[in-house]
Design a protein that fits this description.
The chain is α/β, with parallel strands linked by helices. The protein is built from 17 helices and 18 strands. The relative contact order is 0.08.
């Protein structure tokens, strides 16, 4: 929807219309490590082809560096670096990542160093130890030997024509333990030719005020530009990255959606708009920030993760309004409850339909579907009463706008059902042995004057019911072949009743054009599932003439 005129906070501050990144200090370097550090997240696994797709999308976004992986660690990353050499990128430089040589290996023969060179990237990020604990206990070497590893590894890569960025792993923990030694590791890297030194909060346990203080001190000691690499174990990764930039750091590292090992990395989907819209610091430029939500969803899809709808800036709920007072105010002036215009990050304003909504919000929602009703129309009051009654029973329409549109059309007399259920039956049979149970569903429906009676099996009872319903209807509506069931969720609403509890079923379906959610509620899980499945089919078959 379009916004009514109103003052906004953006890169120029409250009450000004701004262009992202137009003001402030010199441009920052955005270093994305989604394909390396992000790939270390639990439940995330990128193929080499996946990595190429993500790299292309990051390049379109305008990041400066893309850390492609650790070519010495696995064949998949080696394959990525082989492929990416053939892909023309407009903005980003691809970086290979790896460690300093092992203590027992000559640098020229170290397998990791050789793999880094074989990746044939112009820039290599090399990490080494800055915390004495890791030197003596993890590596089991002397402090002086560690300095040697850092220095000759970087010097060798430089002699082979590579730019080198040095990741000072565990730097903040190391500095707090022994600042003199932590700084010695940085000097060893700089003297060997490192062009950037990145201060890493690898354990994610440092607080923002510590980050600011340490970065300020280190900047006075280092003649090369500094970077920040923060982890999110205390929910401080974004804040730590921003205060580091305030202290003079010029390169910020992070991942899309904050994915990463343990609790994740600094989230670039928050850092980028914070920089451009709040701190007046240019980063991407050319209005590429408007692609941020698209990139966020793309990475989530490739990583096979469900997008976090509550994620700031790019989440579905970031500019969603549910309370009646909020909705009324936002309709008058979006700045009342929105800190930026959602379009700046590629998002949109949404008015949620719930028992918190008043007539203003509901009218806005109804009109979005091309149906014109006056504020005093009795049908609007009836729809609001029906909505509140259904939600009191456990229905939830915030994630089921497909069911809401059907409810709304039925209430105003604008819906003609595509089929009529005459009955369904679901059988689950467990036979002897270790084989999985067999689920079979039978459905009888009426379309016009024709009655169709079909049966199908499935991986479970709901899957079997879905197959049987499609089988019955596809001869009448072949477009249903496009529909896929994307997600199925069950929530127990009255747990105190045990297995007799009421449940809510939420189904997400989609085709090649869109996704939609539907809902069902019942004490019987199959009845609730049927309601959501039937609504999903009915939504797909709605005429799209508005």
């Amino acid at each position: 929807m379009s916004h009514k005129p109103g003052k906004r906070q953006g890169a120029g501050g409250a009450g000004q219309d701004v262009t992202p990144g137009q003001l402030g200090a010199a441009p920052l370097e955005i270093y994305d490590t989604t394909l390396r550090d992000g790939a270390q997240a639990e439940d995330v696994s990128f193929s080499a082809d996946d990595k190429v797709l993500v790299a292309k999308k990051l390049d379109e976004l305008g990041v400066h560096y893309i850390e492609g992986g650790w070519p010495g660690a696995n064949p998949k990353d080696i394959e990525f670096f082989r492929i990416i050499k053939t892909v023309p990128l407009k903005h980003a430089a691809v970086v290979a990542f790896g460690s300093t040589r092992k203590a027992g290996n000559p640098v020229q023969k170290d397998p990791n160093i050789r793999a880094l060179l074989a990746a044939e990237t112009d820039t290599i990020t090399l990490f080494g130890k800055s915390w004495k604990l890791h030197v003596t206990e993890a590596l089991g070497i002397s402090l002086s030997k560690n300095l040697e590893l850092i220095g000759d590894s970087i010097a060798y890569l430089r002699s082979r024509g590579r730019r080198v960025f040095y990741d000072a792993e565990h730097f903040f923990d190391g500095y707090k333990t022994d600042p003199d030694y932590a700084l010695q590791t940085l000097r060893a890297a700089i003297e060997a030719g490192a062009e950037r030194v990145i201060l890493c909060d690898t354990n994610g346990g440092t607080m923002p005020w510590e980050i600011r203080d340490i970065c300020t001190r280190v900047k006075q000691e280092c003649p090369v530009p500094l970077g920040i690499h923060a982890h999110n174990d205390t929910e401080m990764a974004v804040a730590n990255s921003l205060v580091a930039i305030e202290a003079g750091i010029v390169q910020v590292q992070g991942t899309i959606n904050g994915i990463g090992e343990r609790c994740g990395n600094a989230n670039l989907c928050s850092i980028l708009p914070d920089l451009e819209l709040k701190m007046k610091r240019p980063s991407l430029g050319d209005r590429r920030l408007a692609q941020l939500r698209e990139v966020s969803n793309f990475v989530a899809e490739i990583a096979n993760l469900v997008p976090n709808k509550h994620q700031p800036y790019v989440g579905d709920s970031a500019f969603a309004h549910k309370g009646g007072v909020h909705i009324d105010a936002v309709q008058k002036n979006p700045a009342t409850y929105e800190h930026i215009a959602p379009e700046l990050v590629g998002n949109r304003q949404r008015m949620l339909v719930s028992d918190y909504a008043g007539r203003s919000g509901l009218l806005e929602k109804v009109e979005a579907y091309g149906i014109r009703l006056s504020r005093d129309n009795p049908k609007l009051r009836e729809l609001l009463a029906t909505l509140k009654e259904l939600e009191s029973q456990g229905y939830q329409f915030e994630g089921a706008e497909g069911s809401f549109e059907l409810l709304m059309r039925k209430a105003v007399g604008k819906h003609k059902p595509s089929f009529e259920l005459l009955g369904f039956r679901v059988n689950v049979e467990q036979r002897q042995g270790d084989t999985a149970p067999i689920s079979e569903a039978t459905v009888m429906v009426k379309v016009g004057d024709a009655v169709e009676h079909t049966a199908a099996v499935g991986a479970g009872p709901v899957n079997a019911l879905d197959h049987a319903l499609r089988k019955a209807l596809e001869k009448f509506y072949p477009q249903l072949k496009e529909v896929k069931l994307l997600d199925y969720k069950v929530r127990v609403l009255t747990a105190s009743r045990g297995t007799a509890s009421k449940v809510r079923v939420l189904i997400e379906s989609g085709d090649h054009k869109e996704k939609w959610g539907t809902v069902g509620v019942s004490e019987n899980i199959m009845q609730a599932s049927w309601q959501a499945l039937a609504d999903s089919i009915e939504y797909k078959l709605l005429p799209r003439d508005h």
